[in-house]
Design goal:
Layout: H1 2-13, H2 15-37, H3 39-51, E1 54-59, H4 63-68, H5 70-76, E2 81-86, H6 108-119, E3 126-129, E4 137-138, H7 141-144, H8 156-161, E5 184-187, E6 208-210, H9 214-221, E7 228-229, H10 235-244, E8 247-251, H11 254-262, E9 266-269, E10 284-287, H12 290-303
Helix pairs in contact: 1-2, 6-10, 10-11
């Protein structure tokens, strides 16, 4: 009651005190929530990593977010057996424009496209659908914590597990595609597009190949009329094509997540509205504006 009185008093008579009061109240609320619901879970994760020889992980998607936890799993796998469980058909809390899985984070079809890639990684002992198995590290926790997710999404898994892998090094191991090689590989999703740029200049280059969905291809084909399309049978093949390509270009989507994971030369169309995707390591560039896009594209073209 006293706090409510102070809030309204400050609001009417002291604007600065009102703003300070609101800030303090928000901070106190997040501390209370964290301590009551999540702090013990964070401590338990550290104990399990220290005391167990086998660690199980849970993730409910998105696809790129699953890929982005792999550096942590790979690091823990140096000393543990690692099992990854994917929770399919978890409903989205909010609407996502042009989301490939509809109103869920990941559906069965997308899981089955992702499975061959995950199973090809020797540091993951088992991959399966989640059906109430015992879980040691729940990566979904990052979306429940009272924190802002507008930071490097490749670090989401590190935040939960308390493990800091070297993300400048590759964490997906695949062989290059045997026949689709030396392409400029492109995947621009309909989400997270940068409104300040266009891809029209790429029409001046040869051997451009789009590896996303047909809807995404048809949209970008309006700007790159000589761009070819390839329908990947699964995400393992998509990764192999990216690995065998000259370099990769795309926005914040599965394509850049895979290019980052294998450390192919890559160019990220950064999203001003949601800048959570970052890039790390050699031959990696990002941009917000058209002249930088064209400059970095030319640099990668000349390097490769």
């Amino acid at each position: 009651m006293k706090n409510n009185f102070l809030k309204y008093w400050y609001k009417l008579f002291d604007k600065q005190a009102y703003l300070d009061f609101k800030n303090t109240s928000r901070t106190e609320l997040t501390i209370k929530l964290f301590k009551s619901k999540y702090e013990e879970q964070i401590y338990q994760i550290q104990k399990k990593i220290k005391n167990q020889k086998k660690i199980s992980f849970l993730h409910s998607g998105h696809i790129g977010d699953i890929i982005n936890t792999l550096p942590v799993i790979k690091e823990i796998a140096k000393t543990h057996l690692c099992e990854l469980y994917i929770n399919i058909d978890k409903p989205l809390e909010v609407y996502h424009h042009a989301h490939q899985a509809g109103n869920v984070y990941i559906n069965k079809k997308i899981y089955e496209m992702l499975l061959p890639l995950l199973q090809s990684q020797k540091y993951i002992d088992k991959v399966n659908v989640y059906t109430n198995q015992s879980i040691d590290i729940n990566f979904d926790l990052v979306r429940d914590l009272p924190i802002n997710l507008l930071f490097d999404n490749l670090r989401y898994g590190s935040l939960i597990a308390g493990v800091q892998p070297d993300i400048s090094q590759a964490y997906l191991n695949v062989e290059p595609h045997p026949s689709i090689v030396n392409k400029i590989v492109i995947l621009r999703s309909l989400r997270y597009q940068n409104q300040f740029i266009n891809y029209k200049f790429i029409e001046n280059y040869k051997d451009t190949l789009f590896v996303g969905t047909k809807d995404e291809y048809n949209e970008l084909k309006k700007e790159i009329k000589n761009m070819e399309f390839y329908d990947c049978k699964d995400f393992l093949e998509m990764t192999q094509i990216i690995k065998a390509g000259r370099f990769f270009v795309g926005n914040s989507s599965l394509g850049i997540d895979l290019a980052e994971a294998v450390k192919s030369p890559r160019l990220l169309e950064a999203c001003p509205g949601f800048p959570a995707r970052q890039i790390h390591g050699l031959d990696a560039y990002d941009f917000y504006f058209q002249p930088h896009f064209e400059k970095f594209f030319k640099i990668l073209d000349q390097k490769t």
